[in-house]
From TrEMBL:
Native organism: Shewanella electrodiphila
Top-level taxonomy: Bacteria, Pseudomonadati, Pseudomonadota, Gammaproteobacteria, Alteromonadales
Domain of life: Bacteria
Protein name per Swiss-Prot or TrEMBL: Uncharacterized protein
Amino acid sequence: MSELTIGEISKPRFEFRTFGQDFTEAAERMARLSVPVPEKVWRRESDEIYIMSRTNDLNNTKIRDGKMDVKSYVQTVDGLEQWDPKLKAEFPISKVQLEQEIFPAFMVEQPALAKDSYSFEEFIAIIDAHPDLQAVKIHKERFGYMVNNTICEVANVLVNGARLVSVNSESTELDDIHTTVKDLHLAGVENINYLQAIKRVIGMKNLPLAN
């Protein structure tokens, strides 16, 4: 089994993640169980925009540092989801890429595009005008760990200013994730990805978070 390295891209990983108001016990256990990790992942902050679609739960689209990143759902195995990078794009984005890759990922009716390329501001204006799409501002404060050779984190997340806490464990090895979930006393807690959590907060899904 190959060793995972925090902060580096590997083959598609499986993931357990959940969201709620309080995961103090899991966070404390994660910190104590973790092996030493590189200082660059001790604490990271970022501002991102997620593009939410009422009709899509399969493609996760976010914008960070002027770049768009789309990950696609692959499969669920033993309760754990696998996601794979689908595309990356930089602004300005061409009309062709918007029509052939971006809007198909949202699974909505495509708007009419008159220009050959679109800046970030122009793209967000299109999203704001679309009845089935919504741009959501996300701020993340992430603390990285490594438990049972799984990449873990505790994250304080602001969803349009609403504060949530997220904990997760990622690996290519299912058994390592399940062991970590048990070690963190999270067995039985619902696995909730970013798309689902954001939709629940903004009212696109009538479901609660884990706590």
